[in-house]
Write a structure and sequence with these properties.
Layout (H helix, E strand, L loop, with lengths): L1 E7 L7 H14 L5 E6 L10 H8 L5 E4 L9 H14 L2 E4 L5 E2 L3 H35 L20 H9 L4 H8 L3 H11 L4 H10 L1
Length: 211
Amino acid sequence: MTYGYIRVSTDKQTVENQRFEITEFCKKEGISINDWIEETISGTIEPKKRELGNLLKIVKKDDLIICSELSRLGRSIFMIMSILNLLMEKGAKVWTIKDNYRLGDDIQSKVLAFAFGLSAEIERQLISQRTKEALALRKKNGKKLGRPLGSFGNKSKLDGAELAFSVMIFAGTSVNRIAKLYGTHRNTVKRFIEKHKLDSSENMEKVRNLG
């Protein structure tokens, strides 16, 4: 089965643009869509409360889901990664048009799925940990949280994503695509890669051995 997945956030947006993109892509690839899933709902809503949740339940090995871009699946990085990890475990394929991802039943996809799942779990734990720390600090000091505008701390919103970054670099994913996926600026991504030497030959060798 091949599914076309379309999501828009509000009634003011139209599904037609995404449907057109997917239809034109399928013509070029010689693919036929067996079923369309369309919904108007925020990507912040968890999948099980969306039509996407029903699709995730019925999708089977070798099924293909085509969408315009990964952001159609969700609006947070760990939600997207969790969805991709689930689909990879089921042996289903995910293709995106704008992002040009081709995730399926191959070694590279399995390594990516492993990195996605691990990164999602790490980010979930970090968010929980930071929330608890923030609440404790607020209770203790009664002060406004967060660093002053324009100041820099040692922590980064990308902390915990080293493995996922490494795998994407190994797979040839561009800095611009990584930045878009993580909702940050390309320079932030470049600094993070340089700081942790993620594109070094030694690190790439470690990623290669994962497969």
